Amino acid sequence: MKKITLLVLMGITLLSCEKNKTSDCGEKMCTEQFVSVMIRFVNNKGEATEVKDFKVINQRTGEKLQASSSISINTIQGAFVVVDDGNIQSLSEQGDDLKITGTSVETGQTKSAVVKVSGGKCACHINKMSGPEQIAFD
């Protein structure tokens, strides 16, 4: 039974992929999932906290990034989409340091953190390489 389940799951995975035919990148299989990187802002008690002036700056290019899914997803207090697959072309294959900054509405304190995310024209999806899951205010 386990072998049948494994074969079915492998078949579903293969069916959910599409070929990426880019002359410079070669031929490869990419899934149709949409990947995003999120960050949470928390207060000194570890609770989600409201943030203003949220921004993400690509340290390599100096450009401000906005995730395409952030408009509909950034409705949970303290949780933000940093980047998503819509930003894949703005990121390098080696990974870019993205500086995330926000100001606590409660205390007025501003905090920043850096996450490293890769992408590039040949990547199927963005990939978070390093960095925190949350930013804590004092």
CATH class of the largest domain: Mainly Beta
SS summary, helix count:
2
> What's the structural domain tally?
2
Task: Give the CA-based shape.
Answer: elongated
Structural class, from helix and strand content? mainly beta
Explain what this protein looks like in three dimensions.
This protein has about 140 residues and is mainly beta. It folds into 2 domains: about 1-30, no CATH class; about 35-135, Immunoglobulin-like. Helix content is about 15%, strand content about 45%. It has 2 helices and 10 strands, in the order αβββββαβββββ. The chain has helices at about 1-15, 70-75; strands spanning about 15-20, 25-30, 35-40, 50-60, 65, 80-85, 95-105, 110-120, 125-130, 135. The strands form 3 sheets. The protein has a 5-stranded antiparallel sheet with strand order 5-4-7-8-9, with no helix packed on it. β1 and β2 form a beta hairpin. It starts with a helix and ends with a strand. Residues about 1-20 have low confidence and may be disordered.
Topology:
Layout: H1 2-15, E1 17-22, E2 26-31, E3 36-42, E4 51-58, E5 64-65, H2 70-73, E6 79-84, E7 96-104, E8 110-118, E9 127-130, E10 134-136
Parallel strand pairs: 3-10
Antiparallel strand pairs: 1-2, 3-6, 4-5, 4-7, 7-8, 8-9
Q: What are the defining features of this structure?
A:
138 residues; 2 domains; disordered N terminus; Immunoglobulin-like; five-stranded antiparallel sheet; single chain; three-stranded mixed sheet; 43% strand; mainly beta; elongated
Could you give a short description of this structure?
This protein is mainly beta. The protein has two helices and ten strands. It has two domains: 1-32, no CATH class; 33-136, Immunoglobulin-like (Sandwich).
